[in-house]
Amino acid sequence: MIDLSNWLWPGAGLGLGDEFTRPWWYFSLLLWLLVGGFSLLSQLRDTRALRYWLFFTLCFAGNMLLIAALDAVSFYLGFSLMSLAAYGLVIHNNTAKARRAGRLYLQLAVLGEILLFSGLLLRASAAGGRFDWHSWQAVPLEPLSLTLLLLGLGLKAGFWPLHWWLPQAHPVAPAPASALLSGVMIKAGLLGMLMFLPATDTLMQQWAPLLLVIGLISAFYGVLAGLLYTQAKVILAYSSVSQMGYLLLLFALLSLTGVAALPVLLAYVVHHGMAKASLFLYAGMAGEAAGRIWRQALFWLAALALMALPLSSGALVKTGLKTQLAAANLPAWLDVGLLSQLLTAGAVLTALVLLHLAAQLRAAINKQSNHTAKASANTKASAGNSTGRWALLTLLVSALWVLPWFIVQYWQLAWPTLPLYAGLVWPLLLALLLRWLWYKLGWQLPNHWYNRNAPALYYSLRLKRLYQPLNQPQWHWPAFSLRPLERRINRALNRPLVSTTALLCCVLFVLLLGSSTM
User: Which tens digit of pLDDT belongs to each residue from 46-57?
Assistant: First the structure.
């Protein structure tokens, strides 16, 4: 632990002493290093690589700071640095869509910072001006501060109905940036909820059933919305909305099980972060998988882990989720049996949306294979970069499938029994059947239902018009040049251009001679 209270503010410090911040920090560092190596290879020929690395390192520094923070101010500084710097990753490609998505992201990020800062001030006032977590844990939550903190942190976590920026930012950001946004950065909102909102607080226990319901809605909404899009990264973005719903559900269970669900929550964070980062990296170079069975197998290994295939990390965390739900002290209006059936239905929809994603990626691979005959001079030069990127993706997917042994050893989650494994397999089989029927029978929704623009983009533009009207002159950096001055002198003297310039040069020459003789 590093005590900084004598240098900064009361309670300031950095450390990894908590039972969940240490594995969270190690997992985040591992993912940042793997994706950073991937970025080194993918950004070699990018003319905007310097800008990419500037915002990449700022996001990395903010993410590591907020995890290691032992007080609310340090967390807020790291959270703000990461959130605002991620704007540079979203608009990196500098297209019209990227700028539009970046505008929405930045507006929501600033709104989230304001809400979080307001909640922080209320909590600090209640804690007598102290900012360390121990002092805050002893102070009861108030409805206003709880609402502000949930909204401010929820905008970063991206669960429904605070998910608006995810489907817009992920498709336009580079693949490594999307992997980090979904793999580790949105988890910062969940970590903030764990730190700011004690699970044992009375008000938190009263609000937990409501959060549980919101988590279930987010889990279903994300997969249903993902089925209505054909862009791979948009589907993955809505899948992240769904998975963050399950994590919100586990967060609510912390207050209903006496924090017994914490190991399951940590395991779910690591599982989802590694699986979703693998899928985003694959989506960014799916065209290179044409004719390469082992490369396409990497997608299926990551997707099957998210589908909770037996012996995968998904099977462990989904079984743990159902176990904690059965042990939770739920109110009378929440039926455990019904919730368990809803989780099973959610597993079917998760598998269905990932099969839909596989179909869209296969179409992209087939389209890319039709252009393989077009040779380029850079083919051999980029072959080494491609091999290195696929090697890093292989390492990440391998770590994902080694993860269950780590979970069992360090977080004492039990392996599912054979009956539980059977309960995990049949939702996948049902999803396969539904997918087959979908194509066999030609099921199709009306065309205007697919690939629709989000209303949030319209309101984002309306908001921009409030603080930047169309008739408002745009500010630019001042240009320092003698050419405009020369033109003004020419017009003032009403002389031919050559003679006026010659006269000006003579005057300057005389002035220089005079200054040198003085």
Answer: 788 888 999 999
